[in-house]
Amino acid sequence: MNFEFTEEQIMIQQAARDYAQRECIKDVIERDTKAEFPTEHIKNLAELGFLGMLVDPKYDGGGMDTVAYVLAMEEISKIDSACAVVMSVNNSLVCYGIEEYGTDAQKDKYLKQLARGEKIGAFLLSEPEAGSDATSQRTTAVDKGDHYIINGTKNWITNANSGSVYLVIAQTHPDKKHKGINAFIVEKETKGISLGPHEDKMGMRSSDTHSVMFTDVKVPKENRIGEDGFGFKFAMKTLEGGRIGIAAQALGLASGALERAVQYAKERKAFGTEIINHQGLAFKLSDMAVKVENARNLCLKAAWLKDQGKPYGIASAMAKYYAAEIAMEVTTESVQIHGGYGYVKEYHVERLMRDAKLTQIYEGTSEIQQIIISRDLAK
Amino acid sequence: MKILVCISNVPDTTTKVKFVDNNTKFDVTGVQWIINPWDELALTRALELKEASNGAIEKVTVANVGEIGSEPTIRKALAIGADDAIRINAKAEDAYFVAGQIAEVVKKDAYDIVFCGIESSDYNGFAVGGMLSEFLDIPSVSSVSGVEIENGNVKVYREIDGGKETLSTELPFVAIVQKGITINPRIPAMRGIMMARKKPLNVVEPVALDKLTEYSNYEMPPAKAACKMIDEENVKELVDLLQNEAKVL
Question: B153 in helix, strand or coil?
């Protein structure tokens, strides 16, 4: 076993840390308060290559491995998980989905622009009545010969407004149930697409989330991904990789909250000494550190398996489940260690705590990850 | 036109400094190495000048005096955007030795501007740049906080007491740069990181040169004393303490 990172992986980790700690930090509280999308940061991160870092260089990507991606996601999420989620959705859902399952023409037309970060992608699976149960898609895509007509509503769509390339999952053959589902590349500017209002969220407020309505939206047949009926499998396969990104995001929230707690506990004095010298808090911090390290190891293991071309679905479910759960615990404890200061925005940790909650919910709830893991045990 | 940027491989600025062997050597265990922050700013400015030069500046080279362990730091400089690198394969013994080795590099390949950070963040000697210009017998400008090139003419800015000084200089020259030379060091992009291993990193053997410095002992600074609060009414006591206890007046 080798726990050493390569020189390139370390450089990427440092680049992500430098950008986040120098630039994202400046306006992260204000953007969270105003629920403003980080337009400038996403442009800069795109120029640095983070928006398409996993994509093959022949499609203008960074050609980096998933381990490097985990390291970068962790560093950016320590400071700004809203920037990190844009990066995660673009890289591991949209770019990955098109690169892995798209046609050459689709890659030429869409993947290059997405990898360069000139366009941002969104992944449209969830519906008002189909969240965890993704098989019961109500959105329909009716086959009209050389094109499809899409009707329906998608919910909780990250990058819905800032993104311009949508991957849409819709039902073509209801009688075939999940085997009748298709996936399509749809340009946001297509006639018949409209957005609901910006969701006023508890956390990840700087990421833009909307519902998206489709009314008789015409999509050319060449924009379908894979064979007829491949859509559900496409969504599940793509989400397997997506989970690593969100797991790394949760890890970053936890490790960011831990770093702030340690720093605060070394400076803040109570009863004549720095509070880190009080065993009650010292033990709390040690438990947080062990949890963060466990989550990091699970994320890196899943990433390593993916990079080796080995099955990683269970590993990524374990990483996502564990990292999200401990992100909630560690950020909450960090607020506790900060006391009253932790409860005000200036000290960042209350935001990390609000953001962490979403990692237990999106891209497969913790309970869905438990189903995936337990079904594998039951085999 | 060609630019050479001298880079030192230094411990990360957050390193907890410890000494070994009876306080005669710096303990390098677990140290993360980085490009000396002033050199990183100089490199960034050199790249900005090259990009703005419409091809007039054909390349930016980095040079380092160091053993093989400094190569990751050199490759970081290549990832940031340097075109090629030279590593003089020797331990950076002292400023005289380093300046002498770099001088040989400059003599072999006519560089028009040589950038040096004003100091390195480890030994803080402030000496290499000045010595280098002496070795080469070319002008040097110290504490440079700005360099501009217009129609081949170089303008150099220095922060001085109460204002700013603008100088022109003939080429080649050594620019000993201060913070302010550019806003922030450049973060390497993914493409640069991928390219770093493909760019030339030439290793040359050092010339025979004595070192002039021997480090006999290191001491940690005393721990900061607790802050004493003096009542604002009691100026006399403050002056007394500054004079007799702190001995700064």
Answer: strand
